[in-house]
Design the sequence.
């Protein structure tokens, strides 16, 4: 075997080893792959239009998400230009509509579900338990799940389910600069900033007196 052939063989072996290592690492960090129960299922993709994608927040690769697929804690969801999506939380009728160029992250903090609003425009319909047995696949009662869902945007926490906000309808927008636009179209919403909580009633907007 000539020196050049040995070099080519060594390069090919190193390349194959790198690919195998990367593939093994990727699958080892996949917390909700097929058959995995490590990541809690909390929502379902109801409808999609054009390009809608998801990924684990600790990964770089975005993958297409289709209608009726289950969504998990730790996933980021985004819509491309000209694309839309609707998400419904399991065990409740709480529904989130994402406009084009919007992005959210499904999170959990202290046992409570939180939806981190990153950019774009959302329409939120608060809801109550819809599960026939009163439980979600994650083991939380539908009523508890409805109360636990919170929308987070920067330093603001917005209740979109539970007492006082069930069946409310809220429109939210977030500019690239991070400025939040919130309007209550039906019912009311509670916005917490630090230790201060403000309740907005129907027809009111954030910052409106």
Sequence:
């Amino acid at each position: 075997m000539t020196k050049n052939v040995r070099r080519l063989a060594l390069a090919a072996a190193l390349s194959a080893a790198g690919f195998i290592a990367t593939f093994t690492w990727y699958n080892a960090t996949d917390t909700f792959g097929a058959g995995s129960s490590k990541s809690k299922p909390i929502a379902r993709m109801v409808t999609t239009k054009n390009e809608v994608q998801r990924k684990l927040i600790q990964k770089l690769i975005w993958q297409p998400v289709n209608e009726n697929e289950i969504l998990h804690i730790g996933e980021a969801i985004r819509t491309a230009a000209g694309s839309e999506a609707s998400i419904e939380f399991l065990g409740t009728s709480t529904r989130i509509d994402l406009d084009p160029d919007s992005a959210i992250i499904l999170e959990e903090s202290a046992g409570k579900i939180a939806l981190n609003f990153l950019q774009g425009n959302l329409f939120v319909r608060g809801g109550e338990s819809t599960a026939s047995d009163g439980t979600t696949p994650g083991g939380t009662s539908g009523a508890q799940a409805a109360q636990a869902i919170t929308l987070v945007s920067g330093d603001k926490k917005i209740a979109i389910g539970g007492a006082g906000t069930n069946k409310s309808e809220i429109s939210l927008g977030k500019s690239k600069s991070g400025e939040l636009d919130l309007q209550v179209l039906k019912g009311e919403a509670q916005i917490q900033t630090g230790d201060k909580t403000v309740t907005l009633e129907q027809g009111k907007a954030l910052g409106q007196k």
